[in-house]
Amino acid sequence: MPYRPEDDEIPNPLRPGLRAESAPEPCAVVVFGASGDLAHRKLIPALYNLAVGAHLPAAFGVVGVAKSEYSDDQFRADMREAVGKFSRTKPIDEDIWADFAAGLRYSPGSFDDPQTFVRLKGKLEELDRARATRGNRLFYFATPPSTFPTLLTQLKSAGLINPPSDPAFTRVVIEKPFGRDLASARALNRLVLETCDERQVFRIDHYLGKETVQNLLVFRFGNSIFEPIWNRKYVDHVEITAGEELGIESRGRYYEEAGILRDMIQNHVLQLVCLTAMEPPVAFDADAVRDEKIKVLRAIETFDTPEEVMRNVVLGQYTAGSVAGTDVPGYQEEKDVAKGSRTPTFVALKLNIHSWRWDGVPFYLRSGKRLPKRATEVAIHFSPLPHSLFGDGRTQPNVLVIRVQPEEGIALRFSAKVPGERYRPRTVSMDFRYGTTFGSASPEAYERLLLDALRGDQTLFTRKDEVEAAWKIVGNILKVTESGEFPPPYSYEAGTWGPQAADQLMAQDGRAWRRL
Ligand code: BG6
């Protein structure tokens, strides 16, 4: 019988006490940056899909805030177009849309102008009356990081942030990048905590909203057979890839400032490392899970000298090439990218985690734009056999691959006897695929995370100390790679798996990247 989520009587282990269908309290969501890409592509379609799944409370509304002078009706029309284009479920359900759209409002203005926030307050009070949202607010900063301090200060001065003790809740969702190095992340954290309480702050990393990323926890801690071998005694090395076919799209200005280390490693990839390497938490609640994740970040060796960075980090930048049969320009030909730019679009790096569980087991990470395919996975390479009974090189070490995307699933590689009179082993694979097992499409990461924020569950959001610990690791690398002493990134042709030096990084240890 196919799997049906409604048959699932077990409360979600990541959200103790909450049944899959428990609805959040009444609430108004305020989206700063409502005219931007994120609001159009992800946030509003995600909220609409939560309405489709009957996850939203009846008393619910959304206020978009941006500079453009829209009326409420123009905003509704714009959002309808966005949902039509980007929604996971299609076509639009007219009845659900009508109710959702009735709760949509727009409040224009510049973030520097205190009047914007006075107007917003009026709009929210009107929404409270019209939709019974009871003064509960979720502020979503879908804006460039340079606006975060202004937004926090203005919200505070306009009296829009209630203390956590107030019966009406205020929560703030802050998009990445949270700072651009350790010092700026600390400064931002200071400001955030002068304005709000940590319990009100939701630093978002959309990777944590992916089903397959959450499944790392269930796979590790919901089964008894993997945990005993999940350590330095049995694991030879761990390989994590987050590869994309996409280039930088129209985000040249942002990307020139960020580069791959800030864009992917400091957040998404280090989160994958944490979930792969953490100890079992004492409970499945926000602090217990995050306490274990931060221990991993603290145990990761930081590179303190340029030599250590040179030895363990390879940077690359794509040149023109062909991806999935289409010719694409090189990074330096992209819009808003400087000729001669040294911004890396690829990184391969080797990390060590100095803990009882992992010491001596290298974690190889790689991420890049314009690679041959989109592929994100965690591969646990188990130790080779101490002695082979079937001839040298006839058996391959076991590998467990957790495919985060696409083709979400888990595969275990092992040796089996080829039929016949001789003992000839061959590597075969046991494969679990989400799509075929569960049938239904997984919700988008933003749906899950918005719902958690509406419910006040911080488990899948990054805590202050976590974000700072991740910056410490990446910041030390950036200090060297951006110092001018580090060589410019190696070139790699778009549509290839990065520069040869990345292969060398593995080859010098007698290992090789998986061919994906
Ligand atoms: C974003 C990065 O955070 O993650 C993008 O800014 C990247 O550059 C994206 O493309 C990748 O996310 P996903 O969900 O497509 O793997």
Structural features:
20% strand, 9-stranded mixed beta sheet, disordered N terminus, 6-stranded parallel beta sheet, alpha/beta, Rossmann fold, Dihydrodipicolinate Reductase, domain 2, 516 residues, 17 strands, binds 6-O-phosphono-beta-D-glucopyranose, 2 domains
What does this structure look like?
With 516 residues, the protein is of the alpha/beta class. The chain has 2 domains: 5-204, Rossmann fold (3-Layer(aba) Sandwich); 208-442 and 463-507, Dihydrodipicolinate Reductase, domain 2 (2-Layer Sandwich). Helices cover 35% and strands 20% of the residues. The protein is built from 14 helices and 17 strands. The strands form 3 sheets. Strands 16-15-14-13-7-12-11-8-17 form a 9-stranded mixed beta sheet, sandwiched between helices. A 6-stranded parallel beta sheet has the order 3-2-1-4-5-6, with helices on both faces. Residues 1-20 have low confidence and may be disordered.
